[in-house]
Amino acid sequence: MTVRLLTILTAIWLAGVAQAETMRMAVTTSFHNSGLSDVLLPAIEEDLGLEVQLLVVGTGQAIRLGEAGDVDAILVHSRTAEEAFVTGGYGTHRREIMYNDFVLIGPSDDPAGSAGAETAAGALQMIAEAEAAFVSRGDDSGTHKAELAIWDSAGLGPEGFGRWYNAVGAGMGASLNTAAGLDAYILSDRASWLNFGNRGELAILFEGDPALFNQYAYLPVNPDRHPHVEAEHAAALENWLTSPRAATLIDGYEIGGEGLFVFNAVGE
Fold first, then answer.
1. Closest among 184, 204, 207 to 193, alpha carbons compared
2. Which residue of 47, 150, 172, 221 has the smallest Cβ count within 10 Å?
3. What's the fold here for domain 102-212?
4. Does the structure show a pLDDT above 60 at 2?
5. Residues sharing a CB contact under 8 Å with residue 93, sequence separation 6 or more, in sequence order
6. Which pLDDT tens digit goes with each residue over 85-102?
């Protein structure tokens, strides 16, 4: 191969790389830790020719990235924060995609007796009364917001808690690792727990309360506020995420024979 031919082929290849369709989406650590992104992203690229670059952060940080126009869309799980994002003009709309639930994880011997509680709030109240070690993500994520809401419904708040309450300011995987190391209680989304390999003596102790419902939603960033965002790509991705193809992949994603998410997107 001549130098001239090699130069031409290289230029063609570089031009193809430069023209690749890409967009940026901020997603929660719980979504990423579940492993579902490893299933969806290659399918999106295959079907749409679109490379979705993920920024993996907590819900609070994902929303701030959207507000700043640093991403084209966000996929998060805190309805109150999502609705404020749209009302504030930062997002065009909110589209529900899928759900799972939160579960209370803790030591198998359950020193607080939380497994016998009737509600999630009751389970946390028992942990507080026992002053049993508890790990909070403490990072303004959707999981952290859900935890705080349950404490609030129990008439409690972490501000007055003692050293048994450990706010680590970390993602779901790192927080679960901390809980395993401390043999502590923690609130986790089910998907991250099922995909977590370092469980130690931890187990699911409480589940099933409607307060533990965990909805994920997709919000495109508003191009009227940030004209540079890839609004067409964000719209194409939304169409794909609400399609039968996405439904099959989301509902079919399992670990150990157990499904991690349930697709519930509806047409507009």
1. 204
2. 47
3. D-Maltodextrin-Binding Protein; domain 2 (3.40.190)
4. no
5. 86, 219, 220
6. 999 999 999 999 999 999
